[in-house]
């Protein structure tokens, strides 16, 4: 079946090679991808017009825990979810629309992030 020379066997071999990545390399690549995403996300977050101690833009961080890498906001910036998805107004009449800055950034940069990760993995092999 592999003797068809149609390219699928080679593609399957490449995919299997990518699946057998060392955990240390995987964490390093994920960390680089998360830092890239955070760098693209930061300019899309508008600074609050209020004189606050904690702005969303300043509280963005990349966290590596065990075998997981994530882009998070610090605990003081708990309100990021309200800005992203919207919320009811304080008086209960009406809603504030969400900004969707995280989702829009990932939609715009997702393919680039995947390409960066694949390229870094290939470079390490």
UniProtKB/TrEMBL annotation:
<dbReference type="InterPro" id="IPR010064">
    <property type="entry name" value="HK97-gp10_tail"/>
</dbReference>
<protein>
    <recommendedName>
        <fullName>HK97 gp10 family phage protein</fullName>
    </recommendedName>
</protein>
<dbReference type="Pfam" id="PF04883">
    <property type="entry name" value="HK97-gp10_like"/>
</dbReference>
């Amino acid at each position: 079946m592999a003797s068809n020379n149609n390219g699928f066997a080679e593609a399957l071999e490449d995919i299997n090679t990518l699946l057998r990545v060392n955990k240390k390399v995987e964490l390093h690549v994920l960390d680089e991808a998360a830092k890239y995403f955070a760098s693209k996300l930061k300019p899309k977050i508008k600074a609050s017009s209020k004189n606050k101690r904690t702005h969303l833009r300043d509280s963005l961080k990349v966290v590596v825990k065990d075998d997981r890498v994530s882009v998070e906001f610090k605990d003081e910036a708990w309100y990021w979810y309200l800005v992203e998805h919207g919320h009811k107004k304080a008086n209960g009449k009406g809603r504030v629309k969400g900004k969707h800055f995280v989702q829009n950034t990932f939609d715009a940069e997702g393919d680039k992030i995947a390409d960066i990760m694949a390229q870094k993995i290939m470079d390490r092999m």
